[in-house]
């Protein structure tokens, strides 16, 4: 039998969709103290405080206002308004003025938070909202990267990003190495000026579209990494896996890239010491900083990635 990336992962991601599980977890008294390990806090100012500390330690940031699967237009509009306020505050930081080179400030956004899943005109609504967000980010001196969600959204998301890049060529996107299609997408999207964040992928996907075993996902990641490094864009290597981190440096060197021609990315609260070590060694490191009240989906994906996180979580609930 092939080794799964994490045998519990599909079960955790499936259970996470149950309203009863959601209600039990969000109400459990011990949850909050563990959630704060992975998110900067519920408010914008919490995110800005976390970002300040990371920037002062030589790291770059990508701030994400948590939200996904929005099914009502009012909520999608509220998400855009929150991003606008965030961008206005980021524009005041000295790090916002780094035109021409790698921008130290970025925001990450899920198109499903901007309305992509709305029953009528979801694509058009998300496109329009993302357009407003990119315009505000351009003015603020901040980059934007569009997160990757489950595979049913990939075509729509990539087509929206392609459309927006005509006006905002710096707009980044995420590709997930567990999808069978991704090596091809890397080839198609590694042209001049493109910014691609390569991650393994965090959703529960069927075998028909995604590799299931850890070995296959890792092999795909390494192939995709080579394509991106050999391409003409700016690769963003989003992984905590030491194998991928080392491969990035080797593959960059092989392609004649310097430390400024790609970046490492890791999540807030995960392998903090390694993030600092890479940055101190001269690598560009960006930390994804999530904040907001809608942390449930994000938190459950982090638990599903690593059985130790789940065990830690359950034990802390049991000992209360
Ligand atoms: P892997 O899961 O193999 O982990 C390697 C090692 O990293 C572990 O042994 C452990 O030490 C540490 N580690 C990893 N996850 C941990 C955790 N949760 N808690 C504690 N330690 C952990 N996915 C997606 O589908 N769409 C997206 O848009 C993004 N965006 C994104 C941005 C950034 C900056 C990162 C780093 C990741 C994403 N992801 C994502 C998530 C990604 O797809 C993937 O699920 C996680 O990064 C875990 O995979 P790794 O490559 O880190 O390796």
UniProtKB/TrEMBL annotation:
Q: What class of enzyme is it?
A: oxidoreductase
User: A GO molecular function for this record?
Assistant: nucleotide binding
Domain Proline dehydrogenase, chain residue ranges per copy: 51-312
GO BP terms in the entry: L-proline catabolic process to L-glutamate
On cofactor binding, the record's note says: Binds 1 FAD per subunit.
Give the range the annotation lists for the signal sequence.
none
This protein is called what?
Answer: proline dehydrogenase
Name the source organism: Rhodococcus spelaei
């Amino acid at each position: 039998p092939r080794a799964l990336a994490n045998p519990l992962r599909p079960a955790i991601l499936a259970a996470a969709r149950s309203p009863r599980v959601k209600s039990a977890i969000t109400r459990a008294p011990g949850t909050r103290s563990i959630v704060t390990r992975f998110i900067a806090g519920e408010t914008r100012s919490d995110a800005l405080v976390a970002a300040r500390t990371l920037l002062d330690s030589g790291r770059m940031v990508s701030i994400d206002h948590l939200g996904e699967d929005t099914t009502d237009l009012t909520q999608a509009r509220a998400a855009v308004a929150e991003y606008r306020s965030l961008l206005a505050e980021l524009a005041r930081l000295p790090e916002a003025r780094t035109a021409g080179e790698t921008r130290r400030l970025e925001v990450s956004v899920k198109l499903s938070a901007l309305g992509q899943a709305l029953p009528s005109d979801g694509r058009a609504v998300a496109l329009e909202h993302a357009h407003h967000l990119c315009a505000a980010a351009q003015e603020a001196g901040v980059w934007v990267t569009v997160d990757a969600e489950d595979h049913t959204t990939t075509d729509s998301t990539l087509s929206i990003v392609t459309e927006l890049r005509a006006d905002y060529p710096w707009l980044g996107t995420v590709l997930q190495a567990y999808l069978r299609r991704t090596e091809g997408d890397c080839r198609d999207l590694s042209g001049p000026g493109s910014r691609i964040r390569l991650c393994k992928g965090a959703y529960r996907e069927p075998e028909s579209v995604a590799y299931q075993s850890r070995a296959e996902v890792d092999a795909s990641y390494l192939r995709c990494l080579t394509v991106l490094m050999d391409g003409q864009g700016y690769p963003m290597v989003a992984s905590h896996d030491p194998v991928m981190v080392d491969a990035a440096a080797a593959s960059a060197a092989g392609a004649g890239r310097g430390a400024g021609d790609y970046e490492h990315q890791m999540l807030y609260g995960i392998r903090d010491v390694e993030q600092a070590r890479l940055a101190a060694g001269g690598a560009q490191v960006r930390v994804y900083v999530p904040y907001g009240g809608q942390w449930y989906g994000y938190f459950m994906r982090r638990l599903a990635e690593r059985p130790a996180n789940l065990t830690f979580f359950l034990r802390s609930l049991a000992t209360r």
